[in-house]
Design a protein that fits this description.
The structure holds two protein chains of two kinds. Chain A contains five helices and 40 strands. By secondary structure, chain A is mainly beta. In chain A, the strands form eight sheets. Chain A has a 22-stranded antiparallel β-barrel. In chain B, strands 3, 29, 30, 31, 32 and 33 form a six-stranded mixed β-sheet that branches. Chain B starts with a helix and ends with a strand. Classes of the chains: A mainly beta, B mainly beta.
C-alpha cells in the first residue's frame, strides 16, 4: 500500500505539474523563423486522427541530445541504451521493440541505413521534428510495422540559413554540427548537414574484478574507469535540387555518407571485459526525391523517392589476450579475446516509394502509396571459424518486400473527420536451403513468396475548439524474415508455412488544449491503448528434431494508459510531464508442446511498464540586452523497476528503479543568433541501467556553443 | 472550466486505477526448496537452480527455485569428492562465466566464490582429481596458422579458479600424420586421465557443421590417449576392432569412455563415421592396464542397427546408451532412444517406461544414485525417470511443472 500511495502521489504530481515539451511547441519562443515554421506542422500532426505525437526538435537544438534521447521524453516511448555515446539504442513503443517498430527518415525506411546512421548517433539538431505513430501507421509510411512507426523529418526550408554548433564535455566528449541551406531566386536549392561525435566514454562503472592469475572474479564490486570504449562517428548529408519548376515542384538529389568506429569494452555482462575488440561501420546512401503538385489536374500530387543504401559492418577480435577491468592483460594461447573474428557484412538496400494524393473538393482526400524494398546481404569472415560459419554463410540472401497502401479521408464537418486505409504486404525471399538428408550439408538457392493484407481506421471529433476526441484501429503485421523462412541452414530449419505476426491495435485519446487570457496555455492529453498481438514467430529447439526451427506461437495483450499535462505561462514558465503505464501480459496458456505455462497472465519481462518524465523551464527575457534570453531547464526521468524474466518462474533478477535529474542553463543573444548552454546530466550521480548489468554514465557536464544565421524571404 | 475539471478528475482516477492494479503482480514467490539433490532447470529462457529432497517422486513448481542464474545454457557436472557442482558455459563469441556450488553445513546451496571466467570454448569436459577439465581441439596456436592445437582448462574444485594450460599440439600424435580432437575425460585414479581421440586431417576452413575435426582418414581404428596432470602424453591405447570413441552433435564431441565399478574402463564406439566398416561396439582396458585386452562387444548387433552417441555409467557393469533415432547418424540428427547394456553379460535392453522417442523434446544430465539412474526427460512437463538397470524399466519420479527442461540432476553432500 505504501508503494501504491507513492505512485498515486507521483501521478497527481505529474498532473498538477502540467508542463514542458509539448507546450513549448505551441508557444512562440523565437529562435529564428526556422522554429516558427515547424510549429504549425507539428500541431497539425498532433491534431490528426492518428495516435501520433510530433515533437518539435527546434526547441532542443541547444542541447547535446541525440534523436533517441529526444524520443525518450515522449509518452509511451522508452529508449534503452547500453552505455555512453554511440552505444546500442533500442526503442520501446508501447512495449513493442526491435523489428516491431519501424524507423523512417523523411518517410523512407531507415532499415538499410546501417549502424553508422541511426537514432543513437544522429544529433537532434538535424531534425525539424520527430513523429511517433503509436499502433496505427498511415499508408505514407509503408512498412510492416506491428507496433508503430517513428518518422524523423529533417530540416527543410526555402530560406538561407546556417547553424553551427560545437559542444564538449565529460569523458572527453566532443560533438560538432553544421547545417547550411540556401535557395536562389531562380529556384536552385542547396542543403548541407554534417556532424561528428567523439567520446572516450571513460566514465566509471561498478563491477567485479577478474584475477588474471586465477581467472576468478572478486566477490565485491569495485569502481573502474572504462578504458576501451572510444567512439566516433561522422556523417555528411548533401542535397542539391530545384524548386518551383513547371515540370517539378521540387526535385532533389542527395547523398548521405556516414561512418562510425567503436571500441568494444565488454560483453553483455559488464564483468566480461575486452581490451582489443572493435567494430566499425559505414554507409553510402544516394537518394533522389521528386514532387509534383497539381499533376495533370489540380489537387493531384505525385511524389517519388528512391534511394540505395550500402552499409558495411566490420567486427574485429584478433588479440590473443585476456583483459580485466584494471586494463591488465595476459597472453592467451589462441587468437581472439572472445571468438577470433574478422568478419564483415555488406548489406545492400534499395528503396523506392511512390505516392499519389488527390483532394476532391473540400471533403474528400485520397492517397495511394507503394514502397518497394529490396535487400541483399553477403558475409565474409576472414577468420572463418567452426562455431559461426558454414558454406551457406557466404551465399546470397535476398529479400524483396512491397507494401501497397490506399487511404481515404472524409471530412464530414470541420469538427469531424475520418480516415480508412488498407495495405497489402508482400515479400519474396531468396536464400540457401539445406537439401541434404545426411550429415553433409548440401545447399541450394531457393525462393519463396508470401503476402497478407492489413487495414485500419482513424477518426477524430472536436467537442469544442479545445477539446478533441480521437479513436483509431489497425490490424497490423510483421512478415517473416528470410532467416525465419529459410533457417540458418545448419542449426536451424526454416518454415515456409509461417504466418505473419499480427496485432490488433486500438487507441483512444482525449486532448484539451487552450490558451486563456493570452497568457496561460494548458495542454492535457489522456490516451488509452489496447494491443492484441498474436502468432509471434519464435525459435524452438527440440531434441526429437535435432536442430532448431521456427514456429508461430504466443499471444500478448497490452492495455495501457498514458497521460500528459503541460502548462505554459507567457513563454516564461513551462512545466509539464507525462506518465505511461502499460499492462502487457502473456495471454498464451499453453506451450507449443502442450503443457500449461506457469507464466500465463504474467507481465511481459524485460519491458519497462511504468515510466514518466517531468520537465520545467523558466526563461528570462532581455536580461543582458534586448533580444537576449536566459533559460533554466530541469528534466526528471523515472522508470519503475522491472523483471528480467517471468515472475511466475520465480525470477529474482530485476532492472532496478531509475531516477535521473538533468539541469541546463541556456543563454541566447541577439534573438538566438549566439547561444551558449551548460548542461549537467544525471546530477545526482545515480547508478543508471536501462538493461541488466549494463551501466550508463554517471554525472556529466557539457558546454555547447551555437551560432545561427537566418535570412528569410 | 467544467470540462477541464471533469477531464482532470477522469485522468486522476484513471491513473489511480492503473497504479492500483500495477502492483498486484508482486505476489509472494513460493518458498525455495531444501535437500541434497540439485536440479538445473530452464524456464521460458532463464536457467534456475533448485534443491529437492527426493528426485524419485512428487511434483515441484519451477517457482520453488533457489536461484536464478545470470546466464543460461550451462553444462553441469557433479563431483563427489570434493562434493561440488560445476557449471560450464561458453557463449558464442564471448567468454562464459563458470559457476561452482556446494552444500553449506545447514544444507543450503552455496556459491563458491563469485564465478570464474572460461576464456575458451570447449567440446569435452570431465573430472580429474581435484580438477574439472575442459578441452577443445582445432585451435590455432598464437603465432601459427596450424589448426592442430588443443586447449585445456583446469578448474580447481576447491578454489574455483581456472588455469589455461599451454596448447597441446596434436599433429602426428599417433604417428599416422593425423591431428586429434579429444573426446571425454575419464579419471584413472592413478594420476592419469583418458581421453578418446578423433584423428583427422586438418579441418577444411570452408567446411560446414562447426566441428573442429576434418576428414577422418582412418575410420576403422580407435585411439585413446592417457595424459598426466602436466599434460604429458603417457601412452596411446590403440586398436583396429572398433572406430573412434566419440559421439557427435553439432560441434560437440561426447564422451564414450566409462569406468565400471570394478575399475575396468570400457571404450565404446558409436561408429559415427559413415566410412567405417565396424559396427558400434566396445573394448576394455583392464583396471590399471596399459593396453586393450581381448574383450570385444558387438553392441550394434543387439540395437536394431541404431548408433549411439552418449554413454553414462549407472552401476556395476551397467551403462545407459543414447541412440540416434535414424540408422544413419548425423551431427544434427535427433537422438531420443535409450537402452541399457550390461558389459560383463554383453546383454542389451531397450529402456521401457519412458515417453515415446518422438515425444521427447529434451533430456538432461542423469545421476547414478543408489544403483539406479535418475534421468531427466522432457515430454510435456519435464520429469526425472528412475531407471532400474537390471530390468531396464523406468518409473516416473519428480515432475517439475512450469519448466521447459531439467538440464541436470546431481547430489551434493556437506559431510
Amino acid at each position: 500500500m505504501k508503494g501504491l500511495k507513492y505512485y498515486f502521489c507521483l501521478s497527481v504530481l505529474f498532473l498538477l505539474a502540467h508542463a514542458t515539451a509539448t507546450a513549448q511547441l505551441d508557444s512562440t519562443v523565437t529562435l529564428g523563423e526556422v522554429v516558427v515554421t515547424g510549429h504549425s506542422k507539428v500541431s497539425a500532426i498532433n491534431r490528426s486522427a492518428y495516435n501520433v505525437v510530433a515533437v518539435d526538435a527546434g526547441t532542443l537544438r541547444n542541447t547535446t541530445m541525440d534523436i533517441g534521447q529526444a524520443l525518450d521524453r515522449i509518452s509511451g516511448v522508452k529508449i534503452r541504451e547500453t552505455g555512453g555515446v554511440g552505444s546500442n539504442t533500442q526503442v520501446f513503443l508501447n512495449g513493442f521493440s526491435g523489428r516491431h517498430v519501424k524507423l523512417f527518415i523523411d518517410g523512407l525506411p531507415a532499415e538499410g541505413f546501417g549502424a553508422a546512421f541511426r537514432m543513437g548517433n544522429i544529433p537532434v539538431a538535424m531534425a525539424d521534428r520527430i513523429e511517433v505513430y503509436k499502433g496505427v501507421v498511415p499508408v505514407e509510411l509503408g512498412a510492416d510495422a506491428l507496433g508503430g512507426a517513428i518518422n524523423i523529418v529533417t530540416r527543410r526550408t526555402a530560406n538561407t540559413h546556417a547553424d553551427v554548433s560545437y559542444s564538449f564535455g565529460s569523458f572527453n566528449t566532443h560533438k560538432a554540427n553544421l547545417s547550411l541551406g540556401h535557395t536562389t531566386a531562380s529556384g536552385f536549392v542547396f542543403q548541407l548537414n554534417a556532424f561528428r561525435n567523439y567520446s572516450d566514454n571513460s566514465y566509471r562503472v561498478k563491477t567485479k574484478l577478474l584475477d588474471l592469475s586465477t581467472n576468478a572474479y572478486s566477490t565485491d564490486d569495485y569502481w573502474f574507469k572504462r578504458f576501451h570504449d572510444t567512439y566516433h562517428n561522422e556523417t555528411l548529408i548533401a542535397k542539391l535540387g530545384v524548386v518551383n519548376k513547371p515540370w517539378a515542384s521540387r526535385l532533389m538529389a542527395g547523398v548521405t555518407l556516414s561512418r562510425e568506429s567503436a571500441e568494444i569494452q565488454h560483453a553483455n555482462l559488464m564483468k566480461i571485459v575486452y581490451g582489443g575488440r572493435t567494430r566499425s561501420a559505414g554507409s553510402i546512401i544516394p537518394s533522389v526525391k521528386y514532387d509534383k503538385y497539381d499533376l495533370f489536374v489540380e489537387h493531384l500530387h505525385f511524389s517519388l523517392t528512391a534511394n540505395y543504401n550500402r552499409s558495411r559492418n566490420h567486427n574485429t577480435d584478433s588479440l590473443a589476450r585476456q583483459y580485466n577491468w584494471q586494463g591488465e592483460y595476459r597472453g592467451k594461447t589462441t587468437k581472439g579475446e572472445g571468438q577470433y573474428a574478422l568478419s564483415e557484412f555488406n548489406n545492400h538496400h534499395y528503396f523506392a516509394t511512390a505516392n499519389l494524393r488527390y483532394q476532391a473538393g473540400e471533403r474528400h482526400h485520397f492517397a495511394l502509396n507503394n514502397v518497394y524494398h529490396y535487400f541483399t546481404r553477403k558475409a565474409t569472415d576472414a577468420a572463418a571459424n567452426a562455431e559461426t560459419s558454414t558454406a551457406a554463410s557466404f551465399m546470397r540472401r535476398a529479400n524483396a518486400k512491397n507494401v501497397l497502401g490506399a487511404s481515404y479521408k472524409f471530412e464530414a464537418t470541420r469538427r469531424w473527420h475520418t480516415s480508412v486505409f488498407a495495405k497489402y504486404y508482400a515479400v519474396h525471399v531468396t536464400g540457401p536451403v539445406n537439401t541434404s538428408k545426411t550429415s553433409t550439408a548440401v545447399y541450394e538457392e531457393q525462393q519463396r513468396a508470401f503476402g497478407t493484407p492489413g487495414y485500419g481506421v482513424a477518426t477524430t471529433y472536436y467537442l469544442t475548439g479545445a477539446l478533441q476526441l480521437k479513436a483509431s484501429f489497425e490490424k497490423s503485421c510483421r512478415l517473416p524474415s528470410e532467416r525465419e523462412l529459410f533457417g540458418d541452414e545448419v542449426l536451424e530449419t526454416g518454415n515456409a508455412a509461417l504466418k505473419p505476426e499480427s496485432s490488433r491495435n486500438v487507441n483512444l485519446n482525449v486532448t484539451y488544449n487552450e490558451t486563456l487570457h493570452h497568457a496561460h496555455t494548458v495542454y492535457l492529453d489522456a490516451g488509452f491503448i489496447y494491443r492484441d498481438t498474436r502468432d509471434y514467430i519464435r525459435r524452438q529447439i527440440e531434441q526429437r528434431y535435432g536442430g532448431a526451427f521456427y514456429t508461430n506461437h504466443g499471444q500478448v495483450r497490452n492495455v495501457g494508459f498514458d497521460a500528459e499535462a503541460r502548462y505554459v505561462y507567457r513563454n516564461r514558465i513551462a512545466i509539464g510531464g507525462n506518465l505511461t503505464w502499460q499492462d502487457m501480459r502473456n495471454r498464451e496458456q499453453y506451450a507449443p508442446t502442450g503443457q500449461k505455462l506457469v507464466y500465463y497472465n504474467d507481465r511481459m519481462p524485460n519491458n519497462p511498464y511504468l515510466f514518466g518524465h517531468i520537465d520545467a523551464s523558466y526563461t528570462l527575457f532581455d536580461l543582458t540586452g534586448k533580444g537576449s534570453t536566459l533559460s533554466i531547464a530541469y528534466n526528471f526521468r523515472y522508470v519503475h523497476r522491472f523483471f528480467l524474466t517471468w515472475q511466475s518462474e520465480g525470477s529474482t533478477i530485476v532492472i532496478p528503479r531509475q531516477r535521473s535529474h538533468d539541469l541546463s542553463v541556456t543563454w541566447a543573444l541577439e534573438d538566438g543568433r549566439y547561444n551558449i548552454a551548460f548542461e549537467v546530466k544525471n546530477m545526482t550521480d545515480e547508478l543508471l541501467y536501462d538493461n541488466y548489468s549494463l551501466q550508463k554514465p554517471g554525472r556529466s557536464f557539457a558546454v555547447k556553443l551555437r551560432y545561427v544565421f537566418f535570412r528569410g524571404k | 472550466m467544467n470540462t477541464k475539471q471533469l477531464l482532470l478528475c477522469g485522468l486522476i482516477s484513471g491513473m489511480a486505477l492503473a497504479v492500483a492494479s500495477c502492483d498486484k503482480d508482486n505476489n509472494n514467490t513460493p518458498p525455495a526448496g531444501k535437500g541434497s539433490f540439485v536440479l538445473s532447470v530452464t524456464g521460458e529462457s532463464a536457467e534456475y537452480l533448485m534443491q529437492v529432497d527426493d528426485p524419485g517422486s512428487g511434483e515441484v513448481s519451477i517457482g520453488n527455485n533457489n536461484q536464478q542464474l545470470e546466464q543460461s545454457g550451462y553444462t553441469w557436472i557433479f563431483n563427489s569428492n570434493p562434493s561440488v557442482a560445476v557449471g560450464l558455459i561458453y557463449q558464442q563469441g564471448d567468454p562464459g562465466i563458470g559457476l561452482g556450488y556446494r552444500l553449506s553445513p545447514d544444507a543450503t546451496l552455496e556459491a563458491i566464490g563469485a564465478g570464474f571466467q572460461i576464456p575458451s570454448r570447449f567440446t569435452s569436459y570431465g573430472f580429474f582429481g581435484d580438477y574439472a577439465i575442459t578441452s577443445v581441439g582445432g585451435q590455432t596456436p598464437a603465432g601459427t596458422t596450424a589448426t592442430d592445437g588443443v586447449t585445456f582448462n583446469f578448474i580447481d574444485l576447491k578454489k574455483l579458479s581456472l588455469e589455461t594450460k599451454p596448447v597441446v599440439r596434436t599433429q602426428n600424435i599417433a604417428g599416422n600424420g593425423e591431428q586429434a580432437t579429444f573426446s571425454g575425460i575419464v579419471d584413472m585414479g592413478n594420476g592419469e586421465f583418458l581421453t578418446g581421440m578423433v584423428l583427422s586431417q586438418p579441418r577444411d576452413p570452408n567446411a560446414t557443421g562447426g566441428a573442429s575435426s576434418g576428414i577422418v582418414t582412418y575410420p576403422d581404428s580407435v585411439w585413446v590417449a592417457a595424459y598426466d596432470a602436466s599434460l604429458n602424453l603417457k601412452r596411446i591405447y590403440r586398436d583396429g576392432r572398433i572406430s573412434y570413441s566419440s559421439g557427435r552433435f553439432r560441434s560437440q564431441y561426447y564422451a564414450q569412455i566409462g569406468k565400471a565399478d570394478d575399475g575396468n574402463v570400457y571404450v565404446f564406439s558409436g561408429s559415427f563415421e559413415s566410412t567405417t566398416k565396424h559396427p558400434c561396439g566396445a573394448l576394455r582396458i583392464p583396471n590399471g592396464g596399459t593396453a586393450f585386452d581381448d574383450y570385444y562387444f558387438d553392441i550394434e548387433a543387439l540395437t536394431e542397427e541404431l548408433h549411439f552417441r552418449k554413454v553414462w555409467h549407472i552401476t556395476g557393469n551397467y551403462f545407459l546408451l543414447e541412440f540416434y533415432n535414424d540408422k544413419e547418424p548425423s551431427a544434427l540428427g535427433a537422438a531420443t532412444k535409450y537402452g541399457v547394456v550390461n558389459m560383463s553379460a554383453k546383454s542389451f535392453k531397450w529402456v521401457t517406461g519412458i515417453p515415446a522417442y518422438d515425444q521427447i523434446t529434451g533430456t538432461g544430465l542423469p545421476m547414478a544414485y543408489g544403483g539406479q539412474l535418475y534421468f531427466p526427460i522432457t515430454a510435456a512437463d519435464p520429469a526425472i525417470y528412475v531407471i532400474d538397470p537390471a530390468s531396464a524399466s523406468a518409473t516416473k519420479g519428480m515432475t517439475v511443472t512450469g519448466a521447459t527442461n531439467i538440464n541436470a540432476v546431481g547430489r551434493l553432500t556437506n559431510g
